[in-house]
Amino acid sequence: MCLKTVQLLSVIVSLLVCSYPCTESASTDDSIHFLNVDDVFEIDKPELQIFCHRANTKYLIHIWKSLTMHLSTNLDNYDLYDGTTPAEVIEKHEDNKRSWRFNLFGTKKSNKLKLNPFEDTCIGVYAQPSKMKKYMISVTQTRLDSLKLSLMVLGIITFCSARKLSDNPLFYYLCGVALGITTSAIILVYLVSKLLPKGKAMYVMIATGWTMSFYLIQALWENAQLIVIQYREWLTWYILATSLISLVICYRFGPVTNRKTKKLIEWFLQIVGLITMYYSSYFREASFFCCVLIVLLYHFPVAIVRKGRSYWKTMFPEKRKLLTDDQYRKEGVIETKKALTELREYCSSPECNTWKTVLRLKDPLRFAKFMEGESHLSDEESREHDAEITRLIDQCEYTDDEEDC
Hints:
Strand content: 5-15%
Oligomer: single chain
Shape: elongated
Largest sheet: 4 strands, mixed
């Protein structure tokens, strides 16, 4: 019995060893190419071709730097594999060849591939020999990726505005409408599942449900532009209907009023903002430093800032600009008119007890005329003021000492 068991194990091991191909023999040095910026390779071979890019040195000025690999081809059937080394790309290619499953998501098919400039990256391209045509591979560099920079700005705005957004009813309704549009697809899937027949067919659909769902999502995403162009009327009515239903539901329940719930929304928005900032750059250390810096600045005590401002003003006071005689007189007229207007407004407001104020005055009739818009000076006071001004002007004109004026 033990001898038969040992023989059976040896057979299994030998089969496993024979079924595992040698990955090093799957590719030669001629099929491995190292790409630099603005390099172009023309390939007309059907076998697996590997294109690698060596990591660049990290500098802070390259925080939003990105690389794009362009694949120019007319092929409809080709496979792409990514990895950090050629051996990893070859291993993925061999796994895909010997896999008996229909792999929908093991490969990516795109004419433009974003590369991390600060990591070693390898991309494998495998074209079917029966449909082989010439294709071209090139790499372009973007020193300031506008998309990455926009993500950083969006993350900062989201983090800093989280408290205001959590209290904003408009933001509540917009999120409710957006959530209603995206989750309406789940309701449609649920309604369709009710129409399916019970029994074996139902179990088959459940067993393959995840695969079919991912396949449909991938197909819809790849053909999103075509769907929007061909079925824009249906898509418009669908969005309008789901938006209206979502808006009605949000209006029925009303905005969030609980303080703790608002705090949770604020924390959630801040976390989303930090994640957006972190993934806004391939330079992860720099983006993480930006996240830490924005958190420290956001929670920095305001009292320290105020003390610093007061200390700065004390050590470096502002130089006051002196007014000329003409500016002084104009400023006096303006401030007097402003003070008289504020006095009239206060006496006319409910805060002022009019009758008590009148009892304290020596001339209530003059106060009443002042409240109706007349001058606060009497005719006699105006004449005395004009005579005093005239006397001072004459004194300044006929005196020899200018300091007396």
